[in-house]
Design brief:
This protein has 108 residues and is an alpha/beta fold. The protein has one domain. It has three helices and five strands. The two termini are 26 Å apart.
Length: 108
């Protein structure tokens, strides 16, 4: 936890990546969900840096169930293709770069 706090002290923006890594049964329905640490870290990023400086990257092809409190979080959807790797991520990376540039340094 101390390492995460130190890194956030130096950060202008933080990114969490949600993958459908786990399955949860919620109200008798099964949902793909991200790992607990991803949900926690995104909330922690928002608390430290604010909602606009905390970005959630989530897959465009898989639905990942997130807490309803995360509505309004800056989300960038990505598409990853193992065959083209970096090329498939280009659009999402460009959107992330633009978002970072729009925000500028944290203490500016």
């Amino acid at each position: 936890m101390e390492d995460l706090e130190r890194e956030l002290d130096l950060a202008d923006l933080a990114v969490a990546v949600a993958q459908p890594d786990d399955i949860a049964q919620i109200r008798k329905n099964k949902h793909s969900i991200p790992r607990d640490n991803v949900v926690f870290e995104l909330a922690y990023f928002m608390g430290r840096l604010g909602r606009k400086r905390s970005v959630l990257m989530e897959p465009a092809t898989d639905h990942v169930k997130l807490p309803s409190d995360y509505d309004g979080v800056t989300t960038i959807r990505y598409k990853f293709d193992k065959a083209t790797k970096a090329g498939s991520m280009a659009t999402a990376c460009n959107r992330l770069r633009d978002h970072i540039r729009e925000r500028g340094p944290f203490n500016e």
